[in-house]
Amino acid sequence: MVQKAKILLVDDRPENLLALEAILSALDQTLVRASSGEEALKALLTDDFAVILLDVQMPGMDGFETAAHIKRRERTRDIPIIFLTAINHGPHHTFRGYAAGAVDYISKPFDPWVLRAKVSVFVELYMKNCQLREQAALLRLQLEGGGKAALGGDAKEPAGLLAELSARLAAVEEQAEALSKQLDDESADAAAVATAAHLERKLTGLRRALDALEPGAGGGPASLPSPN
């Protein structure tokens, strides 16, 4: 069973968190609340998130400061951040949001459909990356000579394991290709397009490594692409 992605919602106003939950509930993912920047940073210590929706105006540690802390941590610096703000002080204020590491900057009131669509793109990219990490782990197991896989716990012949890995990778490749076409057809965020391209490059590297293991390929153990 594919695990649900976690989405971090950060806002000091309970009514705003409730509204975000209502908008994003249709995505059927795990929504995690944080009522302050400090609470958000604590949540990020233990859980992995697909995307963060971060309110700018909060007492104490505001959204900009919270984002700066997130981007300084190696574990969390690549998590996409969408800033939400009820005020707009012009281009300088928006630039500050992007400079803090945000992939998007949305002013309230916002279109619920647009917000949900933006978040869904990052959730899909996150899920594809999770699948890619799984394929890389299984392939490493084969390279290390493990004839037993985490594919049900039974011993498998190398050829059978390779065939199963290839089929699993093909499914991820098909989904990634469909996602890339969707991003090409829509006015997608540049960050989402770049992340999708990065994912496709990693999939290509993993496919080459897997092909090198096929009987008759004539190659030694292939180096695996980093899943990050």
UniProtKB/TrEMBL annotation:
InterPro entries: Bact_response_regulator, CheY-like_superfamily, Sig_transdc_resp-reg_receiver. The keyword Coiled coil applies. It comes from the Bacteria. It comes from Streptomyces humidus. This is Response regulator. The keyword Coiled coil applies. Keywords: Coiled coil, Phosphoprotein. The modification 4-aspartylphosphate is found at residue 55. Residues 6-123 form the Response regulatory domain. GO terms for biological process: phosphorelay signal transduction system. Residues 162-189 form a coiled coil.
